[in-house]
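A reminder from the course coordinator: this example appears on the midterm review sheet, so study it carefully.

Given structure:
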């Protein structure tokens, strides 16, 4: 299978840049509120996507489908960004990673209910292994905390799961670029309500912070969401794509170590190893065990 035809490639690109956004969000939130940061991030994303849209001459959505794009923008960018940023400001990165790691399971359950998509016993087992890796990564480091931020992040997880299902629906008719671009445009339009806050806080923020936000806007938003939508378009079911989100906490820890000087300890390495094992089982477990059963039957 060619790389460009595989949903794995698009999902990996997304997870890499989403993991980076955890680090940059923590650095940027020292100077901007959750609301202002959300607006600035997607303002940069919208500018980048407008340029791409003009160059690529992407078509506007049909009038009857505008409602779906508006809903995707409202849930996936306006509500999710604000709620996620509020949660991250009140809890540790370890806690936030555990809660957001429930998204693949939530997505799988919702896809089972709305789209009748089914996962094999092996894939559910692999998902449980991956989630246990996230828990190990967070709990062994004693970073799990209970406060109102926890509630915000649970809501954020549900919102992102619903957004995943909306992307699954929209990409049946539109490209990944169209699906992400118009969703981000509508989301950014709603986030302009926080423009005054952003302008006030921007006066005291150092220049490097705007570089962080620009990276989040162009790469962790515009590029990442376009790749994410394209992954949903290529995959046979939503869970195969959302499952990659389990890797985010481990990658975020690695990038935090490389870029922000955060510690890389034994719990991170153990938890990361468990997550990668689960990811391997999710993608190859069925084939390996089916092959083993055939060989046994042949004997």
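Designed residues:
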């Amino acid at each position: 299978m060619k790389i460009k035809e595989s949903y794995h490639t698009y999902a990996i690109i997304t997870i890499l840049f989403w993991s980076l956004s955890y680090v940059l969000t923590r650095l940027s939130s020292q100077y901007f509120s959750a609301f202002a940061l959300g607006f600035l991030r997607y303002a940069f994303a919208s500018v980048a996507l407008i340029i791409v849209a003009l160059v690529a001459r992407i078509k506007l959505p049909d009038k009857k489908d505008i409602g779906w794009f508006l809903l995707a923008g409202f849930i996936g960018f306006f509500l999710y960004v604000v709620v996620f940023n509020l949660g991250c400001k009140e809890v540790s990165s370890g806690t936030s990673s555990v809660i957001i790691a429930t998204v693949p399971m939530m997505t799988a359950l919702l896809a089972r209910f709305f789209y009748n998509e089914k996962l094999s016993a092996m894939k559910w087992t692999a998902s449980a292994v991956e989630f246990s890796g996230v828990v190990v990564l967070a709990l062994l480091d004693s970073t799990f905390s209970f406060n109102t931020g926890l509630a915000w992040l649970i809501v954020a997880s549900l919102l992102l799961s619903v957004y995943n299902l909306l992307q699954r629906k929209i990409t049946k008719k539109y490209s990944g670029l169209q699906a992400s671009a118009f969703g981000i445009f509508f989301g950014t339009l709603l986030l302009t309500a926080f423009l005054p806050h952003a302008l006030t806080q921007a006066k005291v923020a150092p220049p490097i912070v705007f570089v962080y936000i620009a990276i989040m806007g162009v790469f962790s938003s515009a590029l990442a969401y376009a790749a994410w939508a394209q992954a949903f378009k290529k995959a046979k079911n939503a869970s195969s794509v959302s499952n990659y989100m389990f890797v985010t906490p481990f990658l975020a820890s690695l990038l935090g170590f490389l870029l922000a000087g955060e510690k890389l300890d034994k719990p991170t390495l153990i938890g990361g190893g468990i997550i990668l094992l689960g990811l391997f089982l999710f993608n190859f477990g069925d084939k390996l065990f089916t092959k083993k059963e055939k060989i046994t039957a042949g004997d």
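The mean pLDDT is 83. The two ends are 31 Å apart (CA to CA).
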